[in-house]
Write a structure and sequence with these properties.
With 160 residues, the protein is mainly alpha-helical. The chain has 11 helices and no strands. It has 3 domains: 6-42; 58-98; 102-157, Arc Repressor Mutant, subunit A (Orthogonal Bundle), CATH 1.10.10. α2 (22-29) packs across α3, α5 (74-80) packs across α6 and α9 (126-133) packs across α10 (137-147).
Length: 160
Amino acid sequence: MKRTSPERIEEYLTLYRQNKTYEQVGKVFGLSGKTIRAVIKSSGRLESRATGTSKTSEETINQYLDLLSKGKTYREVGEIFWLDENSIRSALKNAGKFELRSKAIQNSSSERIEEYLDLLSKGKTYKQVGEVFNLTANTVYGILKRSGRLESRSRSTKKA
């Protein structure tokens, strides 16, 4: 990658701060949005729109949540919206929609754990159980492991 002058990076940032997407900024300079983001990131000046005074719209928050519920990672969601994964987390946190995995584990009642185990006994995979409760497969596994109710993974994931 060619070295980009600090003045040019400032031009990119100026447009970005005017609510232009990386793709839109790139078009102005004949570059891709990915290139603009990479240049800004390598300069150490990558900014999040999810912080500060701007508020992420409810529609955008719902889009984030929808993608996450479909198994996308925070990083993958961030790439779709030209943001880093921490920006996605911050936007969800600011909207009151971000739940740490530790909270999911803490909030797993014995009844909920029974529901996980019931689905697993019916041949569902950890991933499928997680999708029902908007959790990742690893979170379901971790909850069961910490509860002491875990069967071996290979046994629980076999189809009946």
